[in-house]
């Protein structure tokens, strides 16, 4: 009886979160999966069942593969970029003054709590071809001004740079938490054994930091495949669809062309790809994570 009461109390505490998960995540997923077999413009009351036509259209559409390729390229730039830069800063801050760490944590975390739209507008000025800070900085090294957001060669790179900057803060916080959880006795033993700072990082810190690295790798992969706001504000997928990521294309078909069934099919493919990537990461890297 006592065990039943404890379980009931646990379920009651979980109920609000489970309710939000079911209403705002699970139900939309199943609804979108069902809608992908229909043709619906959101104006007619009754969608028309068309079977697999949306999927057939999608897998024969060159635009879909173009956006998917751009999304994979974007993730390959932003995920390793944000993790490596964040790890570098976290190692610099580790074992420093607690007051200094609290201050720098706040500075790093600011982009995470700031509106993506507001950040995107600021970065549009940074990338401005005439008076942007980026071209001014490159000008010190003799580099000619670039049309960052208006050139098909640099538009995706511009979005990637902004996204890396925005993600670094969260990654630094997670890495710092992992580094500061390492037992001081382990670090002191390494010093007694004559280990250099570089050996300490490679042989002790990084292996013990693998849970944080693994967590951030999964979270960042999911986040980057859902990138939308910065692209919509900064380039709208242009020029010439050179920065049209897959979620931007989904939005275009759903809320500009009102082809909700086709957009739902795209969303299900995105869901399947992200799920597959996460499972592959867990399968290939899960065994290399050291939790103790």
From TrEMBL:
Domain ABC transmembrane type-1: 68-281
SUPFAM superfamilies, per database record: MetI-like
GO biological process, one term: transmembrane transport
Gene Ontology, cellular component aspect: plasma membrane
Record's keyword annotation contains Membrane: yes
Record key words, sorted: Cell membrane, Membrane, Transmembrane, Transmembrane helix, Transport
Protein's membrane topology: Multi-pass membrane protein
Locations listed in the record: Cell membrane
Matching Gene3D superfamilies: MetI-like (1.10.3720.10)
Membrane-spanning parts: 12-38, 72-93, 100-126, 156-179, 200-222, 262-285
Family note: Belongs to the binding-protein-dependent transport system permease family.
Protein name according to UniProt: ABC transmembrane type-1 domain-containing protein
Source species: Paenibacillus oryzisoli
Organism ancestry: Bacteria, Bacillati, Bacillota, Bacilli, Bacillales
